[in-house]
Amino acid sequence: MATFESVTPGLEGRVERVIDGSLMTTHVGGKGLFATPSMILLMEQTSHGSVEERLPGGYTTVGYEVCVRHLAPAAEGETVVVTSRLQEVDRNRLLFDVECRKQDVLVGSGTHRRAIVPALS
Fold it and tell me: Where are the alpha helices (DSSP H) in 3-119?
């Protein structure tokens, strides 16, 4: 099994995104708002992105646990900033703290776990 010494606690990721139609939920009626699954997707992408360049060739990460709360709405056209911070590395398992904000408003926060695995060709 490969070693992952370059993937260390403290690594951070940041993604800024304007809420557009692809991130909205409208199935509940009205004009729609920032969807929880979309927030989680951005949290996963930000976490993966924070370690991607440090992975050995032929490896990637996959998410296997998400524990977040969606605390405030965000509307189409608003900008959210998603951050991740790698808190723990246990062999190939990674634990991130994740957060989503629009300006000073906490939109969502929690933890996300990923595993380093061989990438399939």
Answer: 36-51
pLDDT of 89: 97
The pLDDT assigned to 3 comes to 77
Q: Could you give the 3-state DSSP secondary structure of residue 68?
A: strand
Contacts of 10 (CB under 8 A, 6+ apart): 85, 86
Does residue 16 fall inside a structural domain? yes
Q: Of the candidates 60, 78, 63, 62, which has an alpha carbon nearest to the alpha carbon of residue 23?
A: 78
Mean pLDDT per 10-residue segment, the chain (121 residues): 86 98 83 94 98 95 98 96 98 97 97 96 70
Per-residue exposure over 44-79, b if at least 16 CB sit within 10 Å of its own CB, e if not: bbbbbebbeeebeeebebebeebebebeeebeeebe
Provide the pLDDT for residue 91: 93
Quickly count: other Cβ atoms within 10 Å of residue 115's Cβ.
15
Structurally, the chain folds into a number of domains equal to 1
Which residue range is the domain that position 70 belongs to? 12-118
